TrEMBL record:
GO-annotated cellular components: plasma membrane
CDD domains named among the record's database cross-references: CLECT
Protein's name in the database: WSC domain-containing protein 2
Source organism (scientific name): Elysia marginata
UniProt entry tagged with the keyword Membrane: yes
Phylogenetic placement of the source organism: Eukaryota, Metazoa, Spiralia, Lophotrochozoa, Mollusca
Localization per record: Membrane
Alphabetical list of Pfam families matching this protein: WSC
Length: 461
């Protein structure tokens, strides 16, 4: 017991000494305005180095500082001397959703801001909510940005409207860490086998505003400047930072639905756009791609999450992510089911419009032409008859019987010609009606095949 008591007393003394020494060291460091120390000299405020020496980025998150950039210096966690964040977005990108001192870049004043409110509630950590979508910015390079984005449940960012592009540009400009990057690779690219066609990574339509900007930009991967999203140039696919995006339309990687639970459509060169548009016409709320040839139109209850997002890394023939041999890349179509219903109505409306147009054309154009022809023919005939009668009367003035006969012949000829014209008109009208009926029947039979094209048009509208 005596030995135990003695040991306890010694332990207490040691702890007290350690606490005193630690407190002294802490006091010394708090008087410093730096956060970097040299490990080749004694500890103390006089041995600190400039803050810029401590600018090594973390390997797991490029938006966080993890120490010195030289082996003979080390990083002190205490924030004394460390520059304040200039924007909450820097904190969100670093997955730090907390209250922080944010320095106003104009006035230099620092205020406490709750950065968790800036992050929004619908995006995961390190993703910025812009509009109704989530974006993640990667300042580091990757040999295949599209596969990197796919591995975290997204795709390289696609700006489907000029408004979306401008929102992203504004966010980049308002975030110092992002604005410092010169170019960002995004989801607009040219496929290596069909280089003349510009495509998007998520299968969305290429907005005309972007299409006009890249018509003369040659290269497989495209990037835009931080200061101007419309300033687009070709880059080496792994040479610049990139932006990932996810949104309500992209669900992620799922197991291939069972045969009894899916509507199977086979295409030679399948794409996310083609599959999604097809399923809109079918009327299902989800579209799923398996490899480069299979498109499934399924219900929500038919989808089972795959073991990992990296299971869906197979690319379509056009370079977009299309699932794999046993997994599918799924897209939500709930928002567009109304369009699919509208397509059915649009099919019928197109047929009705065709009938009305043809009827109007027949009534207006054909009848006008017929009337004109009749009038011209009658005028010609009457003119000829008058000339002939006049000539006969002049030649045979004395023969009254001859004059009467000539007049009767002229009348008969006029009547016969009129009857012939009427018969011709009737035949023409019958032919036109038959053609109209045939055309309407053909259009009605092939109308379902127009759904894909009509769906595209209605979507763009």
């Amino acid at each position: 017991a005596a030995a135990a008591a003695t040991a306890a007393a010694v332990l207490v003394v040691v702890v007290v000494v350690v606490v005193v020494v630690s407190s002294s060291s802490s006091s010394s460091s708090s008087s410093s305005s730096s956060c970097c120390r040299s490990n080749t000299v004694a500890w103390g405020p006089d041995n600190s180095v400039n803050w810029t020496t401590c600018n090594q980025r973390c390997p797991g998150n490029d938006f966080q500082i993890c120490g010195a950039n030289e082996t003979n210096h080390y990083f002190v966690i205490k924030d004394v001397g460390q520059p304040y964040r200039l924007d909450c977005r820097d904190m969100v990108l670093g997955a730090v959703l907390t209250r922080a001192l944010i320095q106003n870049s104009t006035t230099g004043e620092a205020n406490v801001v709750n950065c968790s409110q800036v992050a929004g509630g619908s995006c995961a950590d390190s993703w910025l909510e812009i509009g109704d979508r989530c974006y993640r910015f990667f300042p580091e390079r990757a040999s295949s940005p599209s596969l990197m984005c796919n591995s975290i449940g997204g795709y390289t960012a696609v700006y489907e409207t000029p408004q979306e592009a401008e929102l992203v540009q504004q966010t980049i400009q308002d975030t110092p860490t992002l604005a410092a990057v010169d170019k960002w690779l995004f989801g607009l690219f040219r496929h290596r086998e069909t280089g003349s066609k510009v495509r998007t990574s998520n299968g969305a339509f290429v907005d005309q505003a972007f299409r006009s900007k890249v018509e003369k930009v040659y290269g497989y991967c495209l990037a835009h400047r931080s200061s101007d999203v419309w300033n687009i140039s070709s880059v080496s696919c792994g040479s610049v930072p990139y932006i990932c995006e996810t949104g309500p339309d992209y669900l992620g990687c799922y197991k291939t639905p069972p045969t009894s639970k899916r509507s199977y459509i086979l295409y030679k060169d399948n794409t996310p756009l083609q599959c999604k548009e097809t399923c809109k016409g079918v009327g299902t709320p989800f579209a799923a791609l398996e490899g480069s040839a299979a498109c499934y139109c399924v219900e929500e209850t038919d989808l089972t999450k795959a073991s990992s997002e990296t299971s869906c890394t197979k690319t379509c023939a056009v370079g977009q992510i299309c699932g794999d041999s046993t997994e599918t890349t799924a897209y939500r179509l709930v928002v567009i089911v109304v369009v699919a219903i509208a397509v059915e109505v649009l099919d019928e409306l197109v047929v009705e419009i065709v009938v009305v147009v043809i009827f109007v054309v027949r009534v207006v154009v054909v009848e006008v032409i017929v009337v004109v022809i009749v009038i011209v023919v009658e005028v010609v005939i009457v003119s000829v008859v008058v000339v002939v009668v006049a000539a006969v009367v002049v030649v045979v003035v004395a023969e009254e019987v001859v004059v009467v006969v000539v007049v009767i012949v002229v009348v008969v000829v006029v009547v016969v010609v009129r009857v012939v014209v009427v018969v011709v008109v009737v035949v023409v009208v019958v032919v036109v009606v038959v053609v109209v009926v045939v055309v309407v029947k053909v259009l009605n039979d092939i109308a379902p095949f127009f759904k894909f094209c009509i769906g595209n048009i209605s979507n763009r509208v």
